Amino acid sequence: MADFSKNVLITDLDGTLLPHSKILNEKDLRAIEYFKANGGIFTVATGRILQATEQFFGDLKPNASVIMNNGGLIYDTAAKKAVYSVFLDSAAVEYTKKMMEHFPEIGVEINTMDEIFVVRMSELERCHLDMTHLPYTEVSFEEVPKDGWCKVLFSIDPDKMHLLEEYTAEMGWDKTDFVASGAFLFECLPKGCTKGSALKKLAELQGWGDYTISAAGDYDNDLAMLEFADISFAPQNAKNNVKEAASCVTAATCNEGAIAEAIEYIEKECKVK
User: Fold this and answer.
1) Domain 7-85+194-269, CATH among 3.40.50.1000, 3.40.50.2000, 1.10.760.10, 1.20.120.530
2) pTM above the 0.85 mark?
3) Which tens digit of pLDDT belongs to each residue from 178-190?
């Protein structure tokens, strides 16, 4: 029987572990249980906020703290409390206001630890909300509390995503970071906040210095985490630049059990006994 002790596997959710249906694949679930039952440490790193992630805790049963908010939150699921969190600089208020003025077509939501504030609804924003099935408050920008922001989420036609990337780069805003987290999703995050920085912090908190850390992801917001990991995986459906950055590209897509394939790779290639 395999012994996965001293092995950590951390995976992105949407597009990596979660298939397009957002229903966890039984093949992946069986593989994750096998990995944990034989000493492995399994957890998740997602751009999702707590309210959108906790619905998966029951099935996945992560045995280490979970990274959320694209690195802004490390959450202990057993103790049900944050062990590490960072928030947006107050400059994000002005940045968001200027983004809304410059791109009148974008959907905009502001996430705090407890609330989702939709300050501009769009067709794509509604699509995003329908996928998460979470309660939200639709308000004007002026009505949103101006502190305690975890992140700002912008939604835009995928063909126009490059315009957001170019605009934020040209503005030279240096109090926050920006990253594409999906085909139509673009995020404003705390400066220096990535899944990679959070994984480094989590490894320090958990004492994983002599562990082999494997990470899996499919999009730009996963790159820093893949770079930090000892072994990195990208599913077949990942963006090309993510595939190029990964140690291994699985034959399977997120719909076909990419994480189960990653666990098979860890067992064979890492000479797990």
Assistant:
1) 3.40.50.1000
2) yes
3) 999 989 999 999 9
